[in-house]
């Protein structure tokens, strides 16, 4: 009689009973809900952990004390490839276990025999997409109008490809020392305290701009839907930010899941609106568009608009450290940026085809102005949820930084925390009253901040840490890319400054 494995089904065995099938379906359903590595509960835990770590570390002006073995702190940043380093005391290490980690620079691949973190590949992809799919996509149709189809398509694709590469570069920088965990750790390790302070300042400006954008979106949208004065709306949403600043961070991270749903529904409704419209704003009867830029000024303005959706690089080192299998990081990042590019190009193309040269700085303005009442109401709800769910997370790192710089233990500590929160929200509110153009804010953030965070800083870290291992050609190539990124950042920033 031929051998048959114990676990293999026999052709003579009876079919499973209905109750067995029901039990099997129930167990599979339970795996999806709570048991399996990719269950919904684990997705939520991965998202919350990623969000909390990112907010806690992004503007930490008093991070873990870094030292390099027996080297003095003054020598931090003068690191060679053969130095044995230790950055953190053992008590501060997270529960990551690494047996073998190798960088194969020739193949540009990160491999690992066994690295145990927490997040699976789908969870990492989800967290990365959530970071990159944000309010920046609302201004992408305006960027396509400024640049035209040809230049705009090329620029958006190059932004996606270059930021994908530098996201992978940040993981390679992490590999230089097992105790590096965050973007700020890499900056301090490479160049010391002064550069770390500059990175903190860059993130501060980025978060300030993002917070202002949230306030503007809320005010513009509710003004368009209900006709309410923008000043009162900005004051109202600022009060909401202030109240939410007292909520625990884990609660806020879970609330921000609603922001992901809102953003996805906004894209879907824009598509549906274009398909059902019969005249103006119709995809079936598209508006007149252009293949080429309006002029040089508008082409430079489009640079920042197209780069702004890719400004989430601060979180990628933490995504890498949190992966169960970091050797799959490169493929996960490729999926993240491929999906993000497709969504960004979809919304940019839809908006430009629907409204052409009449496109506003936010695609939602055009849709709200030319839709039936129920579409306006849905947009009002979604664009109300988006700032409320994400605005508190945006303001929290700024508040944390101010607390670190000003708080002292004592009987007035609670009063000082209250005052710090009030001060931060007032700054956001006043700034939103001064700068009111959403498109220009996105262009500024993309040019001055995102080119810096996504291109200039990561390549500088990479060159510093792997200088002795690179060929002359690769060194000059990286220096050239840094130079190009700097020039584009300056040109885009100047275009915003001189724009009427």
Tell me about this structure.
This is Amino acid transporter transmembrane domain-containing protein. It is a single chain. The protein has 16 helices and four strands. It is mainly α and 500 residues long. The strands form two sheets. The chain has a two-stranded antiparallel ribbon. The chain has a two-stranded antiparallel sheet with strand order 2-3. The longest helix is centred in the N-terminal third of the chain and has 35 residues. The termini are far apart. The N terminus is likely disordered.
Question: What are its keywords?
Answer:
single chain; 500 residues; mainly alpha; Amino acid/polyamine transporter I; two-stranded antiparallel sheet; two-stranded antiparallel ribbon; 16 helices; 4 strands; 2% strand; globular
Q: Roughly how many Å is the radius of gyration? A: 25 Å
Order of helices and strands: HHEEEEHHHHHHHHHHHHHH
Task: Please report the total strand number as a whole number.
Answer: 4
CATH fold assignment? Amino acid/polyamine transporter I
Q: Main beta sheet, described?
A: 2 strands, antiparallel
Regions with little confidence, pLDDT below 50 for 5+ residues: 1-15, 25-35, 64-113
Question: Number of folding domains?
Answer: 1
The best one-word shape is: globular
Query: How large is the share of residues in beta strands?
Result: under 5%
CATH-defined superfamily = Amino acid/polyamine transporter I
Class by SSE composition? mainly alpha
- Provide mean pLDDT, rounded: 79
Q: What's the CATH class, please? A: Mainly Alpha
Helix content: 55-70%
| CA(first)-CA(last) distance | 88 Å
Please report the number of helical segments: 16
Q: Which architecture does the CATH hierarchy give at level 2?
A: Up-down Bundle
Question: Can you list the strand order of the major beta sheet?
Answer: 1-4
